[in-house]
C-alpha cells in the first residue's frame, strides 16, 4: 500500500482552474487557527450515483463523506479513517471510508428513504483509524445527538479528540435531483491557540454562514475567503479529493479464500461464488480459474 503524502501537489499537476475536487488548507496570521475547505461536488455526485440515492439522502451522504475527508486530512493524513454513523432516522446507517489522498468511498443503508427525519436525533458515531505503518487500529465510539452530520463530527472532535473544530457542510441538490454543488469547511484551533485568536475567527463566522453561502451559489473556497477575509489567511497547500472504490477481483478472491475448507473444495469442484462489494455493489464471480490465477505461491 502506497502512502500518499499531503504536500502541495498543485505545482506538479495540471488542474483545470476550479473544476477539480480538492481540499484547500489555510492558517490564520497568528498561526493558531487552521482552516480546511473541501470542494467536493464531483465526489458527492459519484457517491450518489454509486449508492443510487434519492436527493435528500444524497445530501446526507455527501455531507458525511465531505466531513470525514476533512477530518482525515486534518487529523490523520497518512491513515485510513472509517466512520459509521448509526442513528434512528429513516436513512439508516451511513458509512464513510477515507484513505490517504484523500480518496473516499461511502454507503448508506436506505438510499431511497424519504420519511422524516432522514437523520435521527439519537445516534452513535464510530470512528476507526488504521495506521499504515505498524498496522494499529484505534477505535472510538461516541453517542451523538442533534440530527446533524456536521454537529455529530464536531461533537466527536471535541469529546473524543479534545480539539475545538467547527464543521460546516453543504451538499446542494437541484429540483431535478442532481447535485449541483458540495463542499465543507472546518475551522480548527491549534493547541497553542489563545482565546483572542479564536474570538477573531468566531466573530467573522458570526457574520455569515458557510453552508448558506454555498447553498446560495458561492464556490466553497470563495465562501471561506468571503467569511475569513479579515484573518490574514495564508495558504498551507491543496490536496486532490477523489471518490474511489477500492474493490478488486484480487480482494474478492481473498474473501473466498476465507471460506471453510469444505466450501473451498466445492469451489475447486466447479461451484462459482458471487462476491458483492459492500460499497459499490460490483459483483465478482470467483471460481476455480480465479482461485488458481491468484493462488499464493505456497499453494501451487
Ligand atoms: Zn467496490
In short:
The chain is an alpha+beta fold.
Molecular structure report:
This protein is α+β, with helices and mostly antiparallel strands and 300 residues long. The chain has two domains: 224 residues, Hsp33 domain (3-Layer(bab) Sandwich), CATH 3.55.30; 51 residues, HSP33 redox switch-like (CBS domain Like). The chain is 32% helix and 30% strand. The protein is built from nine helices and 13 strands. The strands form three sheets. Strands 7-6-3-4-5-11 form a six-stranded mixed beta sheet. The two termini are 25 Å apart. The structure holds zinc ion. The site of zinc ion has 6 residues, from loops.
SSE map:
Layout: E1 22-27, E2 33-39, H1 41-51, H2 55-75, E3 79-87, E4 94-99, E5 103-108, E6 122-131, E7 137-145, H3 149-160, E8 165-173, E9 179-189, H4 195-207, H5 210-215, H6 220-228, E10 234-240, E11 242-243, H7 249-257, H8 261-268, E12 273-276, E13 283-286, H9 288-293
Parallel strand pairs: 5-11
Antiparallel strand pairs: 1-2, 1-10, 2-9, 3-4, 3-6, 4-5, 6-7, 8-9, 12-13
Helix pairs in contact: 1-2
Bound molecules: zinc ion (ZN).
Zinc ion (ZN) binds at residues 245, 247, 277, 279-280, 282.
Amino acid at each position: 500500500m502506497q502512502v500518499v503524502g499531503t504536500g502541495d501537489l498543485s505545482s506538479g499537476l495540471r488542474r483545470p482552474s476550479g473544476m477539480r475536487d480538492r481540499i484547500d488548507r489555510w492558517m490564520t496570521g497568528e498561526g493558531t487557527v487552521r482552516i480546511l475547505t473541501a470542494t467536493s461536488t464531483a465526489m458527492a455526485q459519484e457517491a450518489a450515483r454509486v449508492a443510487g440515492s434519492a436527493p435528500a439522502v444524497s445530501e446526507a451522504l455527501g455531507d458525511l463523506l465531505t466531513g470525514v475527508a476533512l477530518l482525515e486530512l486534518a487529523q490523520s493524513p497518512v491513515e485510513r479513517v472509517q466512520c459509521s454513523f448509526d442513528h434512528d432516522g429513516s436513512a439508516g446507517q451511513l458509512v464513510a471510508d477515507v484513505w490517504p489522498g484523500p480518496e473516499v468511498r461511502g454507503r448508506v443503508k436506505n438510499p431511497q428513504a424519504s420519511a422524516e427525519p432522514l437523520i435521527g436525533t439519537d445516534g452513535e458515531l464510530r470512528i476507526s483509524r488504521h495506521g499504515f505503518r505498524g498496522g494499529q487500529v484505534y477505535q472510538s465510539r461516541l453517542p451523538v445527538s442533534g440530527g446533524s452530520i456536521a454537529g455529530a463530527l464536531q461533537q466527536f472532535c471535541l469529546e473524543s479528540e479534545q480539539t475545538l473544530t467547527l464543521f460546516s457542510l453543504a451538499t446542494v441538490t437541484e429540483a431535478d435531483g442532481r447535485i449541483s454543488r458540495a463542499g465543507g469547511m472546518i475551522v480548527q484551533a491549534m493547541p497553542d491557540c489563545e482565546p483572542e485568536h479564536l474570538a477573531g475567527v468566531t466573530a467573522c463566522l458570526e457574520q455569515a454562514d458557510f453552508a448558506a453561502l454555498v447553498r446560495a451559489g458561492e464556490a466553497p473556497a470563495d465562501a471561506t475567503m468571503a467569511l475569513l477575509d479579515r484573518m490574514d489567511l495564508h495558504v498551507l497547500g491543496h490536496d486532490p479529493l477523489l471518490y474511489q472504490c477500492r474493490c478488486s477481483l484480487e480482494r474478492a478472491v481473498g474473501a473466498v479464500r476465507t471460506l471453510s475448507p469444505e466450501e473451498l473444495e466445492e469451489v475447486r469442484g466447479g461451484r462459482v461464488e458471487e462476491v458483492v462489494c459492500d460499497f459499490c455493489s460490483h459483483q465478482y464471480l470467483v471460481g476455480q480459474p480465479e482461485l488458481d490465477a491468484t493462488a499464493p505461491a505456497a499453494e501451487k
